[in-house]
Amino acid sequence: MNINWSSLTKEQKQIALLIGIGVVVLLAILYQFALQPMVDSAAQHKRELAGLRVNLDKAAKTLEQEARTRADTFALKNRLETVTNSLIPPFGNSFSWATEQIYQTAKEVGVDIDSVSGGGQASVAGAEGRTFLPFTTQMAMQCSYADLIRFLRALETKNPLVVITTLSVEGREQNGERHPVSLSIEWPSWAQPPAASAAPKPVGSEKKKT
């Protein structure tokens, strides 16, 4: 629609000008109260989405770290159980356990054991409050130097907590291959049995004071 501005009267021109101003004002109001909030809301949503992604990444890393920590804790727990059950004599049965370990190792390497004796906890300074105390056994056998080395190596490989505290080899001229051997073996052992937890008292079992 073409309008000849020169043909319009003064009043028509004023009306047209007012209409134009009204349209501009209306567009400004529409942008300020309708379009601008939508733009701001979209920008806010983008910022919130970016923040959410950052938090999700942090949460994923935290969960991954916790999973590794749980796996490490589980592995450590299994290792401690292995040490407790396989390498440390049970409380109250240390001598039988140690004797079985010695004879089993000797059988594996083909060495004959003459005797196993002893089996007492050593007295150490500051023993009170300690979890483990050294437990010592003495053993005697006759073997060659090579057999002795194989036995000691097998025993220490099977139980790395073992300590050979004394070792004596008696030379014999009439039998150069086999010699009397005596040694003391020290193991870590429980200083005291685990404390038994007290059973909970039934509700209402306590007598009321009168």
Write a structural description.
This protein has 210 residues and is an alpha+beta fold. The chain has helices spanning 10-87, 94-109, 145-158, and strands spanning 113-121, 132-143, 163-169, 179-190. It has two domains: 9-87; 94-190, Ribosomal protein S6/Translation elongation factor EF1B (Alpha-Beta Plaits, 2-Layer Sandwich), CATH 3.30.70.60. The chain has three helices and four strands; from the N terminus they run H-H-E-E-H-E-E. A four-stranded antiparallel β-sheet has the order 1-2-4-3. The N and C termini lie far apart (107 Å).
Order of helices and strands: HHEEHEE
- The whole-angstrom Rg is 44 Å
Number of distinct helices: 3
Class per helix and strand makeup = alpha+beta
Integer tally of domains: 2
**CATH homologous superfamily annotation of the largest domain:** Ribosomal protein S6/Translation elongation factor EF1B
What is the average of the pLDDT values? 76
What shape does the CA trace take? rod-shaped
Strand count, sense and closure of the main sheet?
4 strands, antiparallel
List segments where confidence is low: pLDDT < 50 over at least 5 consecutive residues. Answer: 195-210
CATH topology of the largest domain: Alpha-Beta Plaits
Distance between the termini: 107 Å
